[in-house]
From TrEMBL, chain A:
PANTHER family for this protein: ALDEHYDE DEHYDROGENASE (PTHR47495:SF2)
GO molecular function annotations of the record: oxidoreductase activity
Pfam families linked to this entry: MoCoBD_1, MoCoBD_2
Protein's UniProt name: Oxidoreductase
InterPro entries: Ald_Oxase/Xan_DH_a/b (IPR000674), AldOxase/xan_DH_MoCoBD1 (IPR008274), AldOxase/xan_DH_MoCoBD2 (IPR046867), AldOxase/xan_DH_Mopterin-bd_sf (IPR037165), N-heterocyclic_Hydroxylase (IPR052516), OxRdtase_Mopterin-bd_su_IorB (IPR012368), TAT_signal (IPR006311)
Aldehyde oxidase/xanthine dehydrogenase a/b hammerhead domain segment(s): 213-291
TrEMBL record, chain B:
Name assigned to this protein: (2Fe-2S)-binding protein
InterPro entries per UniProt: 2Fe-2S-bd, 2Fe-2S-bd_dom_sf, 2Fe-2S_ferredoxin-like_sf, 2Fe-2S_ferredoxin-type, 2Fe2S_fd_BS, Beta-grasp_dom_sf, Diverse_Oxidoreductases
Gene3D superfamilies in the cross-refs: 3.10.20.30, [2Fe-2S]-binding domain
Pfam families linked to this entry: Fer2, Fer2_2
UniProt superkingdom: Bacteria
Keywords for the protein's UniProt record, in alphabetical order: 2Fe-2S, Iron, Iron-sulfur, Metal-binding, Oxidoreductase
GO molecular function: 2 iron, 2 sulfur cluster binding; metal ion binding; oxidoreductase activity
Originating species: Litoribrevibacter albus
PANTHER family listed in its UniProt record: BLR6218 PROTEIN, OXIDOREDUCTASE WITH IRON-SULFUR SUBUNIT
């Protein structure tokens, strides 16, 4: 495919640089693929083709990664896109985190805003990074052509080499790099046809190395000269404020350097974690609970249930549900309840901040952490310190998981680190560390939701009406994403997955009640689909049972105009062995759902015996367009299924009198290896533009399990986590 | 508990300081820290070996797993006073760049890590498992590894990598002893688990 790339952002950037080359973007202390410490021998400068690609004189290709690597494989996937069009040798490619810069490294779907989320990295980068790689290749080829005095059209490239077959000559990219830097940035480049791909579609070794020998650097591992570690005592109840505190005992702990007040509690600064934690736990604090939340989650759920009796704001309306229900032969109803959920990544929230003052005035700040909403965090810290966002430098490093938690528009933990540094007042590096208990209790949960569904069947059992009412807090209201994602009072993330129900139902209405509660909420891997997929896919099975229809056949009949839904469902069903199963002790459940433009179907196989139900196997089919790295896609489906099984079976955050009941992995339980079923993933071959895979595997597993349980004669689980134990 | 207290007392008696010595990855080290400091924080903050991770601080997640005299323990809830004159091995001590441990090698070949934060602990548990049981069944792997949480959900790949490493270790032993051990059974099992 050929295209004019002059309008593309990176080329524009190049042109503005005047000499046709964008200068390097290495920040002091910027992490490398091996982490911060080990790579002192940076490759020598050669070709810096554009904001994303450089080729050193030793042949090393460096790809600037603007997205956060939190396990989803973005280092590998994005580097693959560059390497493909560059015809690079995969072994010579390294990925590094780019600087935070909303002009150069913005998420193309989010305007001038850098960040990672919504499973957008591959979709964002598929053209951008291929063009970047192709442009670099064109400059290398031009250099070889000029060096050899032959037309560029006679040259070919492969694995980091340029070849001239007519004369039998070949030369490595590294040797060409300096000459290539003198070539013009191409105005028109040609991208490969999918049939020409050599790396896209292959299993390639991952580029986020250092994760098997302890050398990969996470925020927790940052140790800068003079650095202090800070732990914070937060108010136990949401909405409470600090009244007074006595730090006498805390200050006597050896290693404790200072105790400071911040907006959301009291911070203890010490030379290391254990000292800071010991000191923090000795603080005597009086909280002002006069404005603290008094309700609990049980009371909230009862209120939500009452609210659901009334009509909400209409998010989508097709036909006329009221008259359809009036004429229906059979009406069925069901209610679903979903609790608050913590993200609980293995690495609890943390952030390192170093401020710089001149004459008592803040000049700049430098941060080290797994940044996920770079631009928002820059703005937040800049506002706190009274400086420009561009003066907040971010060294993005690997995150030990996130699942949405590090992408907080409120920048909560980042601002907390900066507040502590400001309150302490000296320009030393401060590392804020949350304990697991702090992380579990500090809020920003997947909101609690109540769903009420109603379906109407005609005399033939055809589904003619569907009403879906959702009650819960808005994730987006009050954030800088409000303008994009809240329309006419409807937070898109509250209803996504329900408002775009793929099934052909003539009368459909989705309504929303947005509640105001003091509990801070946030997106959680697969966002709205975490609850809408469960409610819709479980309820559809209830409809099938009421209509006496097979759940797969009913879905296929309602998905006439949805070939990709049908494709994944048919593939998963075929591969699962559910058809033709004659074992009475086995039962199957299916669910299919699209999120973030990726289609996933899952079939769960349950066995039943005198000891109960056992989760045996999950068969998963995924259609994410061009599969850039099938092994990473499979890993994300396996991981997404594991992540989705936790809330289906175990996880729940309770609020009692405004305080969080759970604290650590003993009472906020997540799936462990002994309970993980076998997972069999099938990737649909496709030439459609690629879409993300980090989130879409998660929402499908819960309803597939519930549907299997009901099919096995177990209870219909309408409240998560399910009560029925699955061994 | 009594053992810990008596060891703590012994450590305290040394020149009136809280100096505790132990062996870390084959080298003797001495540290001067509060005796209740968990081994995890001594290894990470005092000695600067950051491969061992902090996950929960209560021995619930396994991210901090190290070996104490060859046995897997949760270093986040083991006071340093209990480690006096004992031998500790961390992720940094089980292989080298030139000779990775077969478990590490299998982890790389199977592309196990996602975020990677729990993987040091997973690998330390897996190496301990294979020392105790060179030919674990899938069920034995699932139960032995149940103390190590991975939020990314790398469990299927971990299972495959452990079976692969087991086959590799068996193959090595088989070569060394020129005897025929059932590595093929394990390898077939590995195929079956993930095919």
């Amino acid at each position: 495919m050929s295209l004019n790339v002059s309008r593309r952002s990176f080329i524009v950037g190049s042109a503005q640089a005047g000499a046709g080359l964008v200068l390097g973007v290495s920040l002091a202390g910027c992490a490398t693929d091996e982490g911060m410490s080990s790579d002192t021998s940076m490759p020598k400068k050669g070709l810096e083709a554009n904001a994303f690609v450089s080729v050193a004189t030793d042949g090393t290709v460096t790809v600037q990664i603007k997205h956060l690597e939190m396990g989803q494989g973005t280092y590998t996937g994005l580097a693959t896109l560059v390497a493909e069009e560059l015809d690079a040798d995969w072994g010579q490619v390294r990925a590094v985190n780019s600087e935070a810069n909303p002009e150069k490294y913005n998420n193309l779907f989010w305007g001038k805003f850098q960040g990672t989320g919504g499973s957008t990295a591959i979709a964002n980068s598929f053209m951008q990074l291929r063009e970047a790689g192709a442009a670099a290749k064109a400059m290398l080829v031009a250099a070889a052509a000029s060096s050899w005095g032959v037309p560029a059209s006679e040259l070919t490239t492969d694995k980091g080499q340029v070849f001239h077959s007519a004369s039998g000559r070949q030369i490595g990219y590294g040797q060409l790099a300096e000459l290539a830097a003198l070539q013009k940035v191409p105005e028109k480049i040609t991208l490969k046809e999918p049939s020409q791909f050599k790396l896209i579609g292959q299993k390639l070794p991952r580029k986020d190395s250092g994760k098997t020998n302890g050398t990969a650097v996470f925020t927790q591992d940052i140790q800068l000269p003079g650095q202090l570690t800070a732990l914070v005592a937060h108010p136990p109840r949401f909405g409470a404020k600090l009244k007074s505190f006595d730090a006498t005992n805390a200050r006597q702990v050896p290693g404790v350097v200072d105790v400071v007040q911040i907006s959301n509690g009291v911070a203890v600064l010490a030379n290391d974690y254990w000292q800071a934690k010991t000191g923090r736990d000795l603080l005597q604090i009086q909280w002002d609970d006069s404005k603290a939340m008094t309700k609990g989650s049980d009371q909230l759920m009862a209120e939500y249930k009452d609210l659901a009796k009334k009509p909400g704001l209409v998010a989508v309306k097709t036909g006329d549900v009221d008259s359809a229900f009036a004429q229906a032969d059979k009406v069925i109803e069901a209610e679903f309840e979903f609790p608050y959920l913590a993200h609980s990544p293995m690495e609890a929230m943390n952030c390192v901040v170093q401020t710089k003052q001149v004459g008592g005035a803040y000049q700049s700040a430098e941060l080290w952490y797994g940044a996920q909403l770079h631009t928002g965090d820059q703005m937040s810290v800049a506002k706190l310190l009274g400086i420009e966002p561009a003066k907040v430098a971010i060294n993005t490093i690997f995150a030990g998981g996130s699942f949405g938690r590090r992408a907080n528009p409120a920048s909560d933990y980042v601002l907390e680190a900066a507040e502590i540094a400001k309150a302490y007042g000296k320009d030393v590096p401060v590392k804020l560390v949350w304990s697991r208990e702090d992380d579990t209790r500090a809020g920003y949960y997947r909101p609690m939701y109540f769903h009420k569904l109603k379906a109407g069947l005609d005399s033939k059992g055809t589904l003619v009406a569907w009403q879906h009412r959702i009650v819960g807090q808005s994730i987006i209201e009050g954030t800088l994403f409000e303008g994009f994602l809240v329309k006419d009072g409807i937070d898109h993330t509250s209803v996504e997955g329900a408002s775009n129900l793929p099934y052909a139902i003539p009368n459909l209405q989705v309504e929303l009640h947005t509640t105001k509660v003091e509990v801070p909420v946030l997106w959680w891997r697969s966002v709205g689909s975490t609850h809408t997929a469960y409610a819709t896919e479980c309820f559809l099975d209830e409809v099938a049972r009421a209509a006496g229809k097979d759940p797969v056949e009913l879905r296929m009949a309602l998905l006439t105009d949805q070939p990709r839904h049908r494709g994944v469902l048919a593939l998963a069903v075929e591969q699962s062995g559910m058809k033709g199963n004659s074992d009475k002790n086995k039962a199957y459940g299916v669910a299919v759902h699209k999120s973030f433009d990726t289609y996933v179907a899952q079939v769960v196989e349950l066995s039943k015996s005198s000891s109960g139900f056992k989760l045996e196997k999950v068969t998963c089919a995924v259609d994410c367009g061009v599969p850039v790295n099938p092994d990473v896609i499979k890993a994300q489906m396996e991981g997404g299924i594991g992540f989705g099984l936790s809330p289906a079976l175990y996880s729940e955050i309770h609020i009692d009198n405004g305080a969080v009941r759970e604290s650590n992995f003993h009472d906020y339980q997540v799936i462990r290896m002994r309970d993980m079923p076998k997972v069999d993933v099938h990737v649909v071959p496709s030439t459609e533009p690629p879409t993300g895979v980090g989130e879409p595997g998660t929402p499908v597993i819960g309803p597939a399990v519930a549907n299997a349980l009901a099919a096995a004669g177990g209870p219909v689980e309408r409240r998560l986590p399910m009560k029925t134990p699955l061994s | 508990m009594f053992l810990w207290l008596s060891l703590a007392r012994k450590a305290l008696q040394l020149e009136g300081k809280y100096v505790i010595s132990f062996e870390l990855n084959g080298s003797k080290v001495e540290v001067d820290v509060e005796p209740d400091t968990p081994l995890l924080w001594v290894v990470r903050d005092t000695l600067g070996l950051t491969g061992t991770k902090f996950g929960c601080g209560m021995g619930l997640c396994g991210a901090c797993t190290v070996h104490l005299n060859g046995q897997p323990i949760r270093s986040c809830s083991m006071p340093i006073s209990a480690i006096s004159e004992q031998s500790i091995t961390t992720i940094e001590g089980i292989g080298s760049d030139s000779a990775l441990h077969p478990v590490q090698q299998a982890w790389i070949e199977e592309s196990v890590p996602q975020c990677g934060y729990c993987q040091s602990g997973q690998i330390m548990s897996a190496t301990a498992l294979l020392q105790q049981n060179p030919t674990p069944s899938l069920q034995e792997i699932k139960y032995f590894m149940a103390g190590n949480i991975c939020r990314c959900g790398t469990y299927p790949k971990i299972q495959k990598a452990i079976l692969k490493a087991a086959a590799q270790l068996q193959s090595q032993n088989s070569f060394e002893s020129e005897s025929n051990i059932s590595e093929f059974n394990n390898y077939e099992l590995a195929q079956e688990v993930t095919s």
